[in-house]
Amino acid sequence: KNEVEQSPQNLTAQEGEFITINCSYSVGISALHWLQQHPGGGIVSLFMLSSGKKKHGRLIATINIQEKHSSLHITASHPRDSAVYICAVRKASGSARQLTFGSGTQLTVLP
Amino acid sequence: EAEVAQSPRYKITEKSQAVAFWCDPISGHATLYWYRQILGQGPELLVQFQDESVVDDSQLPKDRFSAERLKGVDSTLKIQPAELGDSAMYLCASSAWSGGELFFGEGSRLTVL
């Protein structure tokens, strides 16, 4: 079983809809990252959080440490939000504290 | 705005040939990562550097892959010989410290024929 699971794998929405992408993990973590990957391949870091909630523009990320769960919300979605959204966790133990990535959620927002 | 630079963006090669990728992290970033991403999957760590030292290369196929960061700044990832299964996106990322926010380059897409 993967240590980081994302759902859904694929999501299609109409422009303007509220979108939620979920991430569940099974290990103790020191931080969780939400990343955005566009078709060209480049990855942009959206959020790094270890508790509570962060907001940037139309994007909101929340994390529940006890439930080992995080959500990424997009309000008033737009076609330019179409991308792969990846959740990654940094384990709390281990010498290198490397990131473990989910397999991503492909979001398509239709005009 | 500071960026992580990678080259080449695209590389097509035949199996058994040698391939090299270059990465220049954001200035001052001590931690540098090389990831491999197969289509439809999340990135997989190949090697992590702290300054010029390797801190994790447990997933690096050392029989054919090598990585160096000689002066603790830019880095090179080499594959020799390339195999068909090496076709993937090779991503470089850097962070100011090992637990900090990651900044990714645009990636180098490798196709092995």
Short characterization:
The complex is a heterodimer of chains A (111) and B (113). Chain A is an all-beta fold and 111 residues long.
Considering the chains and any ligands shown, give keywords for the structure.
heterodimer; A: 111 residues; mainly beta; six-stranded mixed β-sheet; 11 strands; globular; B: 113 residues; four-stranded antiparallel β-sheet; 0% helix
What does this structure look like?
The complex is a heterodimer of chains A (111) and B (113). In chain A, strand 9 and strand 10 (99-101) form a beta hairpin. With 111 residues, chain A is mainly beta. Chain A contains no helices and eleven strands. The model of chain A has no long low-confidence stretch (mean pLDDT 92). Chain A is globular. In chain A, the strands form two sheets. In chain A, strands 2, 4, 5, 9, 10 and 11 form a six-stranded mixed beta sheet that branches. Chain A has a five-stranded antiparallel beta sheet with strand order 1-3-8-7-6, with no helix packed on it. Chain A has strands spanning 4-7, 10-14, 19-25, 29-37, 43-49, 52-56, 59-64, 69-74, 83-91, 99-101, 105-110. With 113 residues, chain B is mainly beta. Chain B is 0% helix and 49% strand. Chain B is built from no helices and eleven strands. Chain B has strands at 5-7, 10-13, 19-24, 31-37, 44-50, 53-56, 65-68, 75-79, 88-95, 103-104, 108-112. In chain B, strands 2, 4, 5, 6, 9, 10 and 11 form a seven-stranded mixed beta sheet that branches. Chain B has a four-stranded antiparallel beta sheet with strand order 1-3-8-7, with no helix packed on it. Chain B is globular. The interface between A and B is medium-sized, with 24 and 24 residues.
